[in-house]
Amino acid sequence: MKYKCLKRFALLVSVIAALIVTSCTEEWNKHYSEDFSGTKSNLNLYELIKSKENLNSFTKLLEVSGYDSLLVEDQSFTVFAPDNNALKNIDLNDKVLATEIVMNYTARYAYSTSGIENSIIPMLNKKLLPFERNASNFKFNQIEIGESDLAAQNGILHIIKGYEPYNYNIWEYIYHTEGFDSLRTYVSSLSVEELDVNASYKNGVFVDSIFKTENKLLTDLALINAEDSIYTALLPNNEAWTEILNRVKSYYIMSDADGGVAKQNEVSKWAIIRNLFFRGKIDLPVSEKVLTSTGRVKFYNPDALFQDVEAYELSNGIVYTAGQLHIEDTASWAKPIIIEAENASMGRMLSNFNPQTLSSLGTGFDVSGKYYLGLNDASLNSLAKLHVTFPVPNVLSTKYNIYCVFVPRIILDENDERPYKVKFSLNYCDAEGKKQTGYIDADKNVQSAASAQATFITDPTKIDKFLITENFEFPHSNVVFDYETTAEFVQQIRFSVKVENDTKKTTAEQRSYSRDLLIDCIILEPVL
User: What integer best gives the mean pLDDT of the chain?
Assistant: First the structure.
């Protein structure tokens, strides 16, 4: 891996919070009346800077950027002004660059060297830069201060002997770096402008339509535009983005009813970006055995994820740029789908069963999530059917092996070794989007005729991961939500697994088989 360090990495947020030095105008006046031994000029900051011949270049930047007018105001500022020599290679007439430099070297409030050890200063552009004491002098952003504590009427001037270019944060890096147009275009598409209700009304009275822009990446994944948050980002260049998008899209083929190609592109890109951001700074090789992205994707081989990357330290984290994303399909998008049987939030449906959530703690049985579903016979006659249906969201357009995991009766009573006599069927949509019912036959294939449905006997001695059918292929993806379980979303789930207890309500039958069921979960494992 080639490592490129552009800037000194920002300190941890907790340290920043502890060390930030702030002062208001009153504290500034008090400081210079009681603690400061130097002379306070009658000039404002702009006038003071302009009076210094070794700051002619910085004066020009103030004037070109328009910040000369800010530094004459009756507010407190601190300016860390690079001298002429430091700015000798800068285009002083470039307004964008001039504004960038001035904001990066100017802070609100007054910061003198008095009491400074290792502090962090918030600049006008919200960058958090170090103001530190070393053995013999002071430094700002690792640059030696030549003249310090030059007091003006409205703040303090420090003259520094060097210049460090503006250091992007991760958000800015995405927007300003060549070779990331595909990622940038998608990130931009996530921005939505909406009415700011709080700002548009004052005391309950409408004042004006004030809009705010929100971006789903920032609100749902990572505040990579914030200077007081530290993140690690894995950013694919254009070639890497195209390669992985083409790979992922095959899993998200959407029916016309679900949005077709447009929806396919939308969910595919979101599936990719959920893998790219991590909290904190990740150094290579990765020390953690498991990394979890801000999109809740777990990676159990982190070093493989960061193969063939280049690293850039930015103002709020570190970026690893990649010409290829080494993300295994089964690590992110094409993961097994597990529906915990005891969780009814997906819209679980029961017929003639009374449900009960039971715990496996202390039983010695390895049950998923430590809880399972107990279904007790509540039928009133011998003809009543006992069945439970589990809706399964977020299936992809690929093949799956489908399982039902049964918990044996001996977990409740060591003498109850009765198995379950069960049937299975699937509810799904075919390639034309029509609803179908598939019945599982004796060979565990899916048949359209109910007469083909077979009865199976479970293993009563163990947790039985029972194969319902294998290589069942979904023609379309049915991605309806990530973490929400509202009624609106539940209604959009188009696949479900039905489990029927086929034990008859007779004394003889119930001696051999249980009319109750204990179910751990439903599992769909992708076949790639």
Answer: 89
